[in-house]
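look at this fold:
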Amino acid sequence: MDDQTTFMTTEEMERLMALDSTESLISERHKTHGAYNDTARIIQSFKRVVRNELYHRHTRGQAPLTDSQYESMDMILVKIGRIISGDSAYEGHWSDIAGYAKIANGQS
């Protein structure tokens, strides 16, 4: 009988540890952010409405949003989607919304 011992290379070990860490992160995020497909569907639904309304804003001759306002609004929609799909009591969602609103209002 041939006694062969298989060793993992450092690269293989790092890859395995990174995969374990990634799986752990995904599991944690699922608890707070909800199922990714559900959250994505909700957020993209919000964004379609906003894009449509921003088009109408433009046709009414209103000034466009600044890049900071637009990005903050996008991030607020992401946080609202996570609240709906995930843990609505997760404080991070709510504090992030407040932070993005302050940034959009020039209070950063």
